Amino acid sequence: MKAARSDGVTAWFEVGRGSPIVLIHGLADDHRAWRSVLPNLVLKHRVILYDLRGHGESDLGRGDGTLRQLSDDLIALLDVVGVDQAVLGGFSLGGTVAMRAAIDRPERVRGLSLIATSSRVGRAAAEWYAERAAMVEAGDPQLRAVLDQDTADVYRAAPDELEAGLLIRRQSTADPCGYANACRAMASLRAAPLDLELERIAVPTTILAGELDQHCPPRAAEIISAAIPRATVEILPGCGHALPLEAPGVVAAAIMAASDRS
Fold first, then answer.
1. Neighbours of 209 (CB within 10 A)
2. How many domains does the chain have?
């Protein structure tokens, strides 16, 4: 299904019945990043998945490279699907979008589950994002090889999922402009981290991090947990970044716990 925005179209999908949960995928992915988590949620929840601006089947429109615009897209989608309040489950980039929405529009968020995500980026990470955005803008012929290597890095602890991950990410970034837009949004966390605003998030929040995650390490989860008053954090031993695939049952349980606690 597709819903019109003021400047483009957002692709969204839903399954199940019950209280609403919205799942937000990570950079270069699409809604299929949640493929292993979904079966654990649909019996008791109405699960809404969507492709972020410029990813998968969603148009880029007039992307401005900000988290606030990505958050506004989420709120616009809630309006379209007729959901006043939802539990948000966000993975990686999706977690930053979820936090931005909970800060800006608290009346629309009933609970949060933040999976392998961060509220800030350091200098090296900001440069990483900026370099990839610049590659897209320059039409660099090495871009696809770089994106494939990045995918391999994300799936390092889940090698059996790499083939599917490459398929999804190559399709989602066939037009890489949406990927560059999201890279710019993430790079902005260097100068404007969410840290000082996190105390405004009042809803129950569950946070998961992988012990071996080099993209969003456990320290990032601990920083978020310390700032959000009603947050709990769990570090998963032996896990890397791709937690929705490495530990789908634990991820689903964390999302449902955010719903049950609200």
1. 27
2. 1
